[in-house]
Structures are given as structure tokens and as C-alpha cells.
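Per reviewer request, we include the raw input and output of the structure prediction for the construct analysed in the revised manuscript.
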Amino acid sequence: MDLHELIQTLKTDGGKIVMLVSDGIGGLPMTPGGPTELEAAKTPNLDALAKKGTLGMSIPILPGITPGSGPGHLGLFGYDPLKYPIGRGVLEASGIAFPVGPNDVCIRCNFCTIGPDGKITDRRAGRIPTEESAEVVKTLRAVKIPGVEVFVEPVKEHRFVVVFRGEGLGGNVADTDPQKVGFEPLDPVAKDDASKKTAEVAKEFFRQAKEILASQPKANCLTMRGFATKPTLPSYKELYGLNAAAIAVYPMYKGLASLVGMELVGQPKSLAEEIEVLKENWDKYDFFFVHFKYTDSRGEDGDFDAKVKMIEELDAVVPAIEALGPAALVVTGDHSTPAKMASHSFHPVPTMIVSDLARPDACAAFSETEANKGGLGHFQAIYLMPLAMAHAGRLEKYGA
């Protein structure tokens, strides 16, 4: 019997659960002995919760493994990221409600800026505004490839989705983003024989797209990431017996939530609007996934102070969530994004569960230092959902 089979035998009715995910919240000191971003931030509300709850460190996948956002969230939702690999392209496509079919390969693309030498000078094209980006995306619909349907859809800012539809397409193709400036976009290389056709189609798409984009001032090129086909996952309802809602701003996170059977509610454009959507839908669902992106993006920018401000913005909405009276409130992240590294990292993520059933520990604040000594210890993220279920009174006893 695996974990999912066990949960299905023990699940029962209970209280409501809120999982507040601050993307990339974990950090590092910029200098030896200094604070992390979370420790530098003024977080009176999170600290007050820490005194009532139980803290620990969540390991997104396995010790030492740096997760992408997809695997990181999948672990939080209780699905083993190694058993259920999901490519970024499918997440982006699902997040904008694109009807992904069985013969589709989805690709998450970024507009980028290249110089006269063909080398990337800005991997995100100056974070081109969504309105401007969407118009550029439309020009790429002129790409035609014999034997394959090509769909190109805007997402947000510099991100867009490309979907190839046809027979004989595999999703195992290497990314073309070199992950740093000063290098040309890489060739899409098939990682197995079943994906060779996809790699050739992607090369042709890139060739035509680059010609179309040549006159653009910022988005004059693109990179392709997360080639993927649609996976099959058990739903939250089937697995946990939960009517689950997802409240997020960014499409990718909506996409992952929809793939596990959560209902996407509201069209929030800010954290404050997300909390309003939470309030409006409180009586309709048992579980709420609330996602906050900007702790991650500020970390990826290498901007320590800006990430601190985003953590403080998160802290400000905590009382409104607590006032709703969830049986279990989980505060965590999908991975760490230290500004010092300006990237995702392998470090465990500070995690807190607040519930009337929580066993208080000695932690007096929500931070890496405190969570390292918390009662939850260090645990794999796939066990967070069983812990949340138990703290909400939603798991029965196992055995006599």
C-alpha cells in the first residue's frame, strides 16, 4: 500500500484547510552571520502564528535536489514529483485553459533580447508588459510547419505558450534557454528517439519566429522550455475527498492546480484580490491553495530588499486569512529562492502548520533559524498534505 492508497482508506470529513504558498520564500544571508530575507522582514503576524503552531523544514523533492516550480508545487500537493513528472509547458498551457490533447506537445516560451552577435542580453526581454507581449505573440501565429498544427498563445509578461499538435511527437526535448546572458539560445535537442520529430519541428519554429521578431526592440528572440505532454494524475477529490479551490495570479500555478482537479476561482491580479476571492468562496470549498509569486521573482532578480518587502506584504494579509477560522492553516513555499543565488536552490523551505490540534514547539518566529529547530523537523514535502489533513481532523486511525 502506497501513501495515496493509505490516504484514500483513512480520509474523512473535517475542517477547512488553507495552504498559503509564498513562492521561493526560503533564503540565505547575504553575508556571514546576517539575516535571511525572512529574518530581515518585519512579520509580526507570521511570528504570532509561529508561537501557536508547529514549524519545520520541508524538502521539496529529495535532499540536495533543486526543484523547478512544477515539481515543487506537486510535492506540496502530495504527489511524488519523481513519480509524476510534469513539464512546464503543460502547466503554462493548462493555466490559460488551453485544451491540451493527447497528441500535443506544450512548450513554455520566453521572449528574450539578443544583441547583433546573436547572444542573449536579457533573458526576459525587460519583463515586457503583458499587453505589449500579447501583440508580439500574435505575429508568431504566422509560423506554418507542414504536418503539424501550431498554436501560439500569450501568458503573462515575457511568457507565452507554443503547442505542437500532430502524430509522433514526444515531449522529451532539452530546453533552449542557456539560463544566463552572453550566450546564444541553444538548439532543441531530442533526449530520446520518440522526440526527434518534436526537436526538428521546434528548430523550424525557432527559425521562422526569429525572422518575424527581428525588428522588435526588446522581444527580438525567444527561448523554449519545459517541452511536455499531458500527464494523468488522481484528483484532489478522488485522493483526499476534498472540494479544492485554487487562487492564483500566474497561469502556470493555475495550470498545475487544474491538473490535480482543483477548481480555479476568481481572476485576481494581486495578493489583496486573492484574499477577497478567498473570502467570497469560503463556504464553497474544503481546501484552498493561495499562491503568492513575488517572493520568488524578487529572489530570482537577486534583490534582497525587494524580497523582504514582498514577505512583509504577505505578512499583512495573514490576519484576514486567520479570521476565517481555518481548521488548519499551512504557510510554506514550493522551494527556496535566495537573493544571494538569484535562482532556485536546494535548501529546505520553512513551513508552519497552525491548528487547534497543533503541538506547539519552542519556535517564537517564522524563519529559517526557528524552523530548523521546530517540531515538524525536516520532512519531504509529499507528507505535508497528510499532515494538513490530520491537523484538520480529516484522517481516521489506521488499524485496530
